[in-house]
Fold:
Amino acid sequence: LTAISVERGVGVLWPFWCRCHRPRLLSAVMCCLLWALASVLAGLVYFVCDLGHSQHCWRVLGTLCFLNFCFFTPLMVLSNVIVFIKLRRSSWQHHPARLYTVIFLAVFFFLLFGIPLSVQIFLNFFVYVNFVFEICLLLASVNSSINPVIYVLVGSYGKSRFRGSVKVALQRVFEER
Structure:
């Protein structure tokens, strides 16, 4: 979400640079690097926390929470605020509204459902409340599964009733006009 948000922010702030000078494979390379980073971090959590090296588990989880809460989330929120402000002030009225709606909803639900787990892990350094931690895990699970629902609902929005397939709804969301 952070990479998508930053890319959209750069695209809105400097549209001519993005069309003329942005490397063609930049998105693909960034996605590969971010997936590799996520895999390394998930492997680190598994190795340190699940395989019995618990004395360092909180340090690893704290570092991940710090990265998520103090770097990725503010960058994502800032990029989306910039996109929102720039598009609201723009005289050019044709914007890919569905795509921006999907990005906004994905970020909104991430902040609503995904951030509480990071906050709870951070608070676990001071006090552990099992019930709250379980709720935060449930919210994180909802966050992980809500994006396809967002895509289908936004892709089918504006129709009297949903008659198409999920594939058609997804195509409507991501089509460029």
